[in-house]
TrEMBL record:
Entries under CDD domains matching the protein: B3_DNA
Protein name: B3 domain-containing protein At3g06220 isoform X1
SUPFAM superfamilies per UniProt: DNA-binding pseudobarrel domain
Coiled-coil regions listed: none
Domain TF-B3, chain residue ranges per copy: 30-108
Organismal lineage: Eukaryota, Viridiplantae, Streptophyta, Embryophyta, Tracheophyta
Species assigned in the record: Nicotiana tabacum
Amino acid sequence: MVTSIEQVTIPDHLPEFFKIYHPQICNPQLRIPPAFLKFFNGDIPANSMLQDLAGRSWKVVVEKNDNDFFFMGGWPDFVRDNNLKFGEFLTFSYVGNSNFYVKIYGINGSLKRDVTAIKEPELHPLDEEIVQEIGTAAPPADQALNGSGDLVVYAPSFDIVIKPSYIRKKRLNVQAAFGNRYLNRGQGQNFEAALQTDRGSWPVSVHNSDRLILQTGFGEFIASNALREGDVCQFMLIDEEKFMLEVSIRRQLK
């Protein structure tokens, strides 16, 4: 349910995360990035309030599934009221006390303000190339001080939905914008990387041609982590020199 209050200005240096909206990944629930949970100081809220620049607010329920936390009840209302569309960019700035300021950028790059939905969100096929290109490639790793003087570290990442071809071929195309910026050693120069989860670490070879492809070792990573079609993996670059990626897995609900 949306509640209108006065116009707001978002303070600088709040801890934040972002999402690129895709209906099949971000609706009817939205995962809170695992690396962001530390800003709750060990007390994950049962409910959160999302507030936009126009001063409207939405109450959303926070629920746990496996080891991940999601915006659930109330989130579809936020999606509908803001008429979120495929490819739009959202930032969630945490002000504390379970409250987030949310900014939405349209696919033209302009900030959306005071939107009232007049139709259902669009649906788009979730094919391999679309997932690769709009998967959430985060901003460059950076550091800043928030309002409390805490050091906030942002790590680049991208999300991939596991498709049958990834399991069958035992290979994965790295999201292009992410790979070109953070993992590119020059075309034709193959190299080794490492994928890390709470189950261990797996070396993988990276084939570097017109795009980066995780090859040898990726099949073992799939098998060891029991990945299935529909699982969503977030690949976060935690060591740029050693090309180490921390992988968080959101399991497809059965």
